[in-house]
Amino acid sequence: MARRPSRLVRVLSSSLAAATLLSTAACSDDGGADGSRVSGVTASQVAGMRQTPSPTATLSTDAARTALITEADLEDDWTQVKDTEAENWHDSLLIGTVDVSDFVSGKAQASDCQRLMDSLFDDDLLGRPSGASELRGFVQGDSRLLYQVASYDRTDPQESLNWMATLPEKCDQFTVTDGKDKRTVQVIETSVPKVGEARQGLRVTVRGSAGGDDATLTLDVAAVRVADDAITVTAGGLDGGEDDSVKQAVQQGTQRLEDVLAGKSPAASPT
Question: Is the pLDDT higher at 140 or at 29?
Fold first, then answer.
């Protein structure tokens, strides 16, 4: 698949370690105690049931930055990196063309899976933000965690969440090729803490090669909507997923965003 020059430049300029770098992403669970998918409910119906934290709340750039989580919000040994470093986290294992022959329904189903891979690479799983957008990155060993807060006031993040809820079925398993190597991709649904107004979680596993060696990239992703704003979290790497850290980031981050939208100072981070 042809790529925009800017995307290729970013990848080719990276070192082999770029195969561990993350983008961002998210889907829902199947309605369990921790999850949120509501079958048979359309995006417009959900939008009608929204309870906005403040009728006039608008997420400014400063507010979005205040809503970002910190190292203190995460357990284990996560270390915050410079924003410029996190902005360039893109994983070359995500680049490729989805094999249409893997799908019974052909191009339509393959298109959804292609959109998933492209949006994970481009850090826009919920689509391009129409308003303020801020991100923060953390590292722990060879794993990375990318946290984003963004406003979608002129688009509908619920439509993207509804789309993501279909991916574990549509994109259960498929093949991606970059012209010389083939990779197997699996998508499963994961649970997300019951926070915000809507939420989706998933795990994406990509099995292929990096530098001629077999490699498995595992990404845990989650997205939570609060009114017309949302947070997205992506974490993992070649050493495996980071489901617990994603859940903790979602739990702490949603509260911070809700406090900011309500005009409050975010609660102190846990120790």
Answer: 140
